[in-house]
Write a structure and sequence with these properties.
heterotrimer; A mainly beta; B alpha/beta; C mainly alpha; B: alpha/beta; five-stranded mixed beta sheet; 38% helix; elongated; disordered C terminus; C: Cytochrome C Oxidase, Chain A; two-stranded antiparallel sheet
Chain lengths: 224, 307, 671
Amino acid sequence: MGRGGRLTILGVLLAIAVGLVVFTVMAFIRSSPPTVDFTAGHQPGAPVDLTVQTVGSIGFGPHPTWVSYLTETPGGQWVHTTLWDLPAHTRVNVTVYQYDSGSPLRNQQFGQVTGTIGDRAMLNRKPFQVIDSNSGNGIAHTFSIPTLGISVPLYGDSSNANLCAQAPCTTKSPHNLVQFSFMTPGPGQYPWQCFVPCGLAYLYGNGGPMQTVGYMGGFLQVVA
Amino acid sequence: MSPSEQTHHFRRLVAIWTALSVVADVVFYFAVGPHVPPGAMTTSASGQQTDFIVLFMIALPVMLAVWVYMAYALIVWRGSGAGADDPEGGAKARGHLGIQVGWIATTTVIVLGVFVYGTVELIVPAGAGGGEGPSPIWTPASHDVLPIQVIGQQWQFTYRYPTFGGFETRQLMLPVDTPIAFHVTSLDVIHSFWAYQLGVKADANPSSDNIAFTTAKQLGAFTVRCSELCGLWHGAMYNFGRVLPKAQFFAWAQSTERQNAANTKLLPAFSYTYVPDANGADGGYYPDNVDPYSNVEQYGATTPSGK
Amino acid sequence: MALDMRASIGAENVGGTPPPRTSIRRRPGWLGPHVGRALAGAVGGYAFGHWVGNLIAAGYINVQGNGQNDVATVLGLSIGVVGWLAGAGMLDYPLARIVGREPLPPTPSKSWTRYFGPALDHKVIGLQYAVVVLLFFFTGGLLAMAIRTELLSPTSHVLGPGTYISVVGEHGTIMMMMASSIVIGPLGNWLVPLMIGSRRMAFPRVEAFSLWIFAAGYLVILTALPLGGFPTGWTGYAPLQTQAGAGMDAYLVGFAVIGIGMICAGFNLAVTIINYRAPGMSWGRVPIFVWSILATAALLTLATPTLVAAGLFGVLDRTAQTAFYVNEHGGSSYLWQNLFWFFGHPEVYIMALPGFGIVAEILPVFTRKPLFGYRVAAAGMIGVALLSFFVWQHHLFQSGINPDMRPLFMLTTELISIPTGFIFLVGLGTLWKSKIRYEVPMLFALGMFFNFLIGGISGVFLSDVPVDVTVHGSFFVLAHFHYTIMGGLVFAFFGGLYYWLPKMTGKTLSRRLGKWHFWTMFIFFNLTFFPLFFVGLLGQPRRVFEYAQNLQVWNDFSSVSAFCLGASFVIFVVNFVWSIFIDPRPAPPNPWHSLGLEWQTPTPVPPYNFTRIPVVLADPYHYSRTDPKPVADLGPRTLVLAGTVPPGTSEAVGTDVTGEEGSADPRPPIA
């Protein structure tokens, strides 16, 4: 085979190898859940309504057995994401439909409501500040923004009930309603997470969904 | 090469090096010294600062020696220089016992000196702020040590004050001029408690009590960051603390104890190590009928989850 | 005897040779062993292993709970590696022996296609290693660019946090895996037999195996990305390791695989150096590069098994629910740290020592002076190798180890800086009153000295426990090891590459592009990593995606310099591709006028290296006009080799390698 032919083959093989490597790296880097935008058409000074739900197993996608949050878009659709664009210095009214069973907390410190407006939240329309996770149904998840000092425990449903196992769940399934409000700070990206180790079958419960954005943790992307 | 040429180069090198070293050390000591991290907020931090300054003032002449020599050699002995001599070969160029022995002796003396100094600097400020494990041997002289437990969990540090009823808080407040013992532990994976301005760093291992000492000498705010990769939100695992005057600290502690009384009753009894309840919240990795191999306090469920 | 067994062993003519055994049938071109067949084997092996894993473990409670079958992943990767090796022909010889058949004799091939399959010529394997190493480096470099892009802003994020720590971990692991073999592989394998006057390595098939398993390790660790990445960084600390997703299995299997390759490469090189030296090559005449490889080989063979064991425990914890690293069930979260760093610290000296060897080899050639303090240099390398086993707990100073241990390990770590400093004594002594030629390899060697000085001194700071309290786990550590590994080893590697490529490929690299490459790489390397010392001192921990606002300027400066540093490698790639493939100019056999034995061969080096085994007369450092000595007699007489007649005598006639009467070397050239 002539030199030109050899060079061509080598060049093609090298291009394929390099291309595969670049593709693998870039595909990994660019994977991310979508962002729900609450800033479009937002009137300054008006509050933002953020509605989410927590389910025991999401039932679809690459990890159907994982617990997850889902977000409702302003248009009323449920999207599998935990990334939100929110306006700065705005009151956000959060409504959580909690469809998962609960358990005692690893650290009861997170049974307290902190950082919300009024330092309290509403559970099924009754105000509360502390939940004893060792009694009743326990706590299913928390909604916590550590850098802003906000944390709200989400009371669990009874594990004997017929819990929803496929997201998005509707209010026909047993659920608890938790509502609270907080003020967004200035522009920036603020991570939020759940502090209940609810990653089933992971060591210390903090693997899997607990460590994947889009399931039990995400970002508040506050824009000016 | 004649002996006089040899001494000529050598003397020049020594002169340049001495001048530069003196200037560099003096400039460093006065201009940079007071600002060397981590500052002088606590005994451990100022000990580390002094240690760093001393080490750097030894390191500067060492580095300058190599750089001055290299720069000199690369300029003076470059091959294309007009009239450059052919290099010397033979036994003299292959080794020189005096230089070799001198080099080894000098480096050994410097290294051993640095070791002795470092050990002193480690012992005197009660362990220099580093985690000493559950049986520390370098402790503060005073017996009035305030214990504070640092609990690392994925992904936040919380703090318990056993002398104030064991309340747990996410704020770290410290009294000034009081020896403090940080008892660092973890409820899950390995974290590391790094209070930057306090000059304290201690790894948080599950079921381990890692003790680090310091005494704050100045008032002010400080940053706490996790410095051992612990999972997704490791980069977001930080908070801030303050060093307060003693009276203010006690007021804060007592009022927080009161405010948190309801939740403190729900917390497990205070202990220096905990076994995280791995069966809670369906987080069970091991089957439900396999109990943790430990009789220390379980942190979390008083009854295992029914699931 | 009761039964006459002679016939069953083919001994019909007792006292004669047994009848020839049947050979394995040789397959034609495309079905023979080569990289394409290896890939097919890998894919098939992975699919089979994954299927078996699902068969075994799909019913486990854990697997049903989290939807993650680690048994399938581990089996898939492991059997995939076996499939890769089978496809590359690595299993042919052992399998043939096991079933009692005659293994295929090697086909000496002169075609360029021999680089795509298994080879027994150490020179071919060395060049294959070079390609794989550069592929590793390129991938790791891409990931580094991604890291620096993310760190441009403390609050605005390009990558998700999980993606970021996976990228950081992948970058670190790929680079460390590559760096462990970056010199041993391409340069060690290519050069050592030539430098010691041997025709071959001691175990050519083991050498080929170590290359192919090194390439398999690359594929395994790359698989971590599609599996979701791993969250622990390259240090893999348990118990986060036990908690992690499927990508962690790729890390553990990948390290085990690379580890096996390292062990094989290590003992192969050690045995070759000890046993295959040409006559006359006493230990006092061994080139300093070979000394560094010997010290490194000892570390490779003795330290790496700990890593393989640690990885095995990790795999067992993740698949069989054992509790080696889980405190609450009888294990210890300290166990992985200790096992890993017991390997990890010798590992970094595995990286540093060959770099020392290369610069010590390059310096005399371009200063035209003998190496100063040859014995000190060799002693230093052995000293570093020995001491490196006694310092590992300096990675654990604040983890809660017995506090008595800390002054002890502070002492040993600071003591190891003494033999490490010997390379500076040797280098500076060689520069004294020399005649310096600023060729590209020399520039890289000098750059290595500059960088390693900063890296080494910062290491002394880290070994000092009080200072370590602030800088451990911060960007100061990161700057330290990038200065020593990248500034030291990688610079030395490129120096060695520019120095030896004319001999390895027979083509000259462009001098001008080489100088451009050096200067851009040197300047931007320092601009990238020097600010990171300050970033660490000012409180930024490693592996974080959010940092203090006031550190953004430093980080941005470092990131922009890093992009320029990445671009500087393009110059090297252009030089490499242009000068070797597109517009090659043949290189003279000894372009640098080196006295080294490897340069006394013709270019291209014949497959058997030397027509006659040389008799070594002196070490290769007798430069300068006052003491010109040839390094070896390349045409020794037969009786000289038999040891009965001293070299230089005119009696007796030698023969050459074609094996005519009285062939000097009874050992066949290649297995």
